[in-house]
Design a protein that fits this description.
- Helices cover 37% and strands 7% of the residues.
- It has 140 residues and is mainly α.
- It has 2 domains: 35 residues, no CATH class; 76 residues, SWIB/MDM2 domain (MDM2).
- The strands form 2 sheets. The chain has a two-stranded antiparallel ribbon. It has a two-stranded antiparallel sheet with strand order 3-4.
- The longest helix is centred in the middle third of the chain and has 14 residues.
- This is DM2 domain-containing protein.
Length: 140
Amino acid sequence: MEISSRTCFPFLSTETVPLLKPPFHTSSPSLRILAARPVNLRMGRTVVTCATASTGNRAPSGIMKPKRVSPEMADFVGAPEVSRTQVLKLIWAHIKERNLQDPSNKKNIICDEKLKKIFPGRDQVGFLEIAGLISPHFLK
């Protein structure tokens, strides 16, 4: 009964029910329940979107823009131009596919021969270092 009374009379609260005089207030059991407990009258949130954010025809920029890469990175990726985000996705796919994360510490990546070409002289790389270590491979 309580749930249906709140859905039927959501505009009534402890502030509006006392305005109703006792003959009306006591005759309705659902109004007695509402008078006993306050109703939460919060307004729902409105989501406002920006008109420029919804345009999908814009050219990629920043880290999404394809740039020329070094020959070592081109061999790994298989393309002469690629975006930073795509390179990171391909590196992580390579790591996951070959199970190159250190079992004792998942933050460390054990470099195989392909990764050693990209990260020269490194046998292990921290996963936070990857984004910084690929920077020299993007040519200006």
